[in-house]
Every structure is written in C-alpha cells, then in structure tokens.
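#structure-requests
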Amino acid sequence: MEALRRKETYSHYFATLKYALYAVTHPLDGFWDLTHEKRGSVAAANTIVGLTLLARVMKLQYTSFLFLQVYWEGVNIFLYIASILFPLALWCIGNWGLTTLFEGKGRLRQIYMGTAYALAPYPLIQFPMILFSNMVTEEEGAFYLVAGALSVLWAGALILCAMMEIHEYTLGKTLLFTVATLFAMLIMVFILLLFFSMISQGLAYFISIGREILFRL
C-alpha cells in the first residue's frame, strides 16, 4: 500500500511538472487549468524555480567568455541566488496583498505556482544556449543574444497571463496591478531596509553601553 501511494505521488509530481510545457505554450488555458483545475503542484513549481536558479548559476560558470565575462572575486553565489529568490517572494506577497483588496481571486499559493510555472521558458532556453555559446564565434552569436532576451521576455509575458487567469482580471487591470505590485515591492524593500537599519543602530547602541560599563569596571 505504501509503495502504491509513493508511486501515485511520483506520478502526480511528474504529470504536474510536465504540464509546465503545456502552460507555457497555451498560456490562457494552461494557467486557468493550472490553478482552477488543480493541474499544477507546489512541488513542480519548486522544481522549476530550482532549475531557474541552476540555469543562472551554470550560465555564470559555463557560458563562453565571448558572451559573458565573470569576475569571480566579486561574485557571492549565495547573494546571487538570494537576488532571485528575494524578488520572487516580494512579488508573490505584494501581488497577493494588493489583489486581495481589489477582488482578486488568487491565493498566495496560486500566485506562487503561476509565477513559478511562468519561469519555465528561462531554463528551457538557457540550458541549450549555454552549450551553444561555446560552439560559435562572437560574430555568429547574435542568435545567442536573441534567445537570451526571448527567454526573459517570454517568461515576463507568461507571468502577465498567469496573473490575469488566476485573478480573473482583464488585461488592462492585470497591467495596472503589475505596475502596482512592482511599486509595492519597492515600498517593502524600503521598509525592510529601514527596519534593519533601526535594528543595527539599536544593537550598536547597546554594544557601546556594554563596552562603556566594562571599561568603567
């Protein structure tokens, strides 16, 4: 019985992961069914985000120096990964917070899943392009640059489609709330920076008091 459940779990996981291919090629129907018909899963969404992070890191490591020059002394992989995950978290929270106030139908889980599935074109295109970059000359690399831009633009367009279907908004309203979400992300970053600044100043104050007490003793 346990083996059967495990097999069903893996089968469902691979089916939801495979569904990403349908969602990115049929975005309107795909993202509607993704959440409303439960064709997606958080596990598959996490896998796509993981593949996106892996593609970004491998792009730094293995892309030909003709197209990408990396100065490893100034690269912190953990900060580099956080620079992707942190905006993703801010986007999901900000979009959920705003749309909840304005009749948005999506829940936080659905927004995360839709955004993650929309990122699928990035690793799908970038992994082959990493190999391709090492097989062409600089003069022949226009296709590499176009493909790289396509992976980002395609993912961006899919995020719009995902939010439109998840919240059941019109295109105009989706664009409006996309801009509003980006603005909300800036506000959240400002609040977080202010918060950590206050914390660091408070800690510095108490540390200075402790040092003064130790000095007088």
